[in-house]
Specification:
alpha/beta; 308 residues
């Protein structure tokens, strides 16, 4: 069976040889559905569910002991499911392999405050060499497992170092994050030689205003967005904020970037169907997740998710 990456390569090679007037299958048509389960994902369950892609943690429980085997990741690929590894590059997590228990009382200079909304997650000075070395070691583990894509979370932490801490200007902080993502892309595609590897960033649409040299846009294949249309109580998101985000997303779409959207609306009555249809109307790829925000369960909705 052909993998999604092989099909994508064929698309890119063919697109270069076809005249501008020809009908070209856009890359977003290669993925029509995705799952997002980063806590306790069951590989066999996902493999049987017929999604085109899945965002999962490198480990079933977040620990090194619980990391998925190469055979498990291969099972996803054998079922034509693009395996996307979740990776937070803007916060340190105290249950990861790199965490040193001494940091609780004697933190390194680059470790910041605990996230009040997520216990055990700590802001980091993401530009610090020691932190970036940790991330590159983390990426090595992900590549060894056989993942074919990565989703970088907490890119938006760049804004905190301007707005909350006042340590950097907004432009300087954004530039440092863009350079970090660019370095990750270069490490994977050039140093490791995985030219077909795909990178997504999550949320952080404001950073593209600072991407004046298009380095970030060139480094990524797409973006993952949360709570675009609905909040988890079923109410619509703030209209002004939603329109701003839609404008940014459509700009990225015009550059053939993939748009993955997760709204936490399951099992609210009628809302998942409305969310999925609205997302598809914009050409986005939707996933209706549980209202708990936990992302610890594969949500399948008959006739809606995954798309038939």
């Amino acid at each position: 069976m052909k993998s999604l990456l092989f099909i994508l390569l064929c698309f890119l090679l063919t697109a270069c040889a076809i005249s501008p007037d020809s009908n070209i299958i856009l890359p977003e048509n290669l993925i029509k559905s995705f799952a997002y389960v980063i806590d306790g994902a069951q590989i066999n369950e996902i493999a049987d569910a017929h999604f085109d892609a899945c965002i999962i943690d490198y480990s079933q429980d977040g620990s090194e002991a619980g990391k998925y085997s190469t055979q498990q990741i291969k099972l996803l690929k054998d079922n034509d499911i693009l395996p996307v590894a979740y990776l937070s590059i803007g916060e340190a997590e105290d249950y990861r392999f790199y965490w040193n228990n001494s940091w609780t009382n004697d933190p390194p200079d680059w470790l910041g405050d605990e996230n009040p909304n997520w216990e055990g997650n700590y802001t980091v000075q993401f530009w610090d060499e020691a932190w970036q070395d940790i991330i590159f070691d983390y990426i090595d583990k992900i590549l060894e497992q056989g993942f074919e894509a990565i989703m970088l979370d907490k890119v938006d932490i760049y804004y905190d170092w301007y707005e909350t801490y006042g340590l950097l200007s907004e432009q300087e902080s954004a530039t440092r994050m863009i350079e970090f993502v660019e370095a990750i892309s270069s490490y994977i595609t050039e140093t490791k030689g995985l030219e077909q590897f795909l990178i997504f960033t999550q949320n952080a649409l404001g950073i593209f205003d600072h991407d004046t040299e298009n380095k970030l846009k060139q480094a990524i294949w797409g973006v993952s967005i949360e709570e675009l249309f609905y909040d988890n109580d079923g109410s619509q998101t703030d209209e002004q904020e939603r329109q701003y985000r839609l404008e940014k997303l459509q700009q990225l779409q015009n550059l053939d970037k993939i748009i993955l959207v997760t709204d936490y609306v399951y099992p609210l009555q009628g809302i998942p169907a409305a969310f999925i249809q609205n997302s598809r109307n914009y050409g986005f790829i939707p996933y209706a997740a549980d209202v708990s925000y936990q992302l610890d369960e594969l949500i399948i909705i008959d006739g809606l998710q995954p798309v038939e």
